[in-house]
Amino acid sequence: MKVIDKWVAEFFIRRQQNPKVPPINLLSALKFEDSPDCLNLKISSVLRDISSSLIRGTVGEGTLDLLEILEKLLLQQHSLLMESHKSAYCWMAAECTLRFMWPLSASDGVFTDALERIWTKRVGILKKSGSDLVTDELLKWETDLEKALEDPELYQRIRETNIRYTAISFLTQFLKEQWELYGSSSLESEAQTRFLKRKAVNHVEGDCVDNRKDPNAVDESTRHLEDDTIDNVNERRGTGEGEDGNENNKDVEGVGCLENDKVIEQHAA
């Protein structure tokens, strides 16, 4: 499988809000389904299917299938199940069951069929396999729903409970956490890496250009060295001028003494 094909498919699956082509069908058409290095791509496709069902408002028992498939994929990846994953499955199972509690009595048969299909078979298989989706909360729902078959008052109380909002909230929270865990797609990550590298190169080149344009951009240590050199030269010049001046004064004094001696000799004669 070509890397670029995988990256483009992953980008499409993650970015497309409501794809016309289901992600699983896309992977099948591109023959990615049997590739061992496509585990993240498969997980992304399942997450996108769940997200699409939320957008279309078609969450139901098919969503339970997707959550179960996702658990198997995460186990292959040696990843732990999030608590939001477990809660989403539990409340979706309960919500799917409550849809069939519209009759006033549990004896009408619709509710009984839902219990058999969702809890006895589906949840029963999860129990036997030791699935982490089987939580204490899920088992409590199973117990209450089974009791509702024989307890009309409990049946009515559960029947009047609107848990769809709670189920959708848990499912939405789970998707949010799972997408955040996987972060950006490989294509986006590669593009960002190259952009940052190019930005760093441009920054270095810009600094070099600025230094060439500014003739006064002299190193501070060089500037101090030049200042010290000028000061030393001035000091030497000042000292030299002082010595020459003293010598000249001495010469003048000597000439003056000779002239005075001559004057004294003339007066003495």
From TrEMBL:
Region: Disordered, residue numbers: 207-269
Compositionally biased region (Basic and acidic residues): 207-240, 247-269
The protein, known as: Uncharacterized protein
Source species: Noccaea caerulescens (Alpine penny-cress)
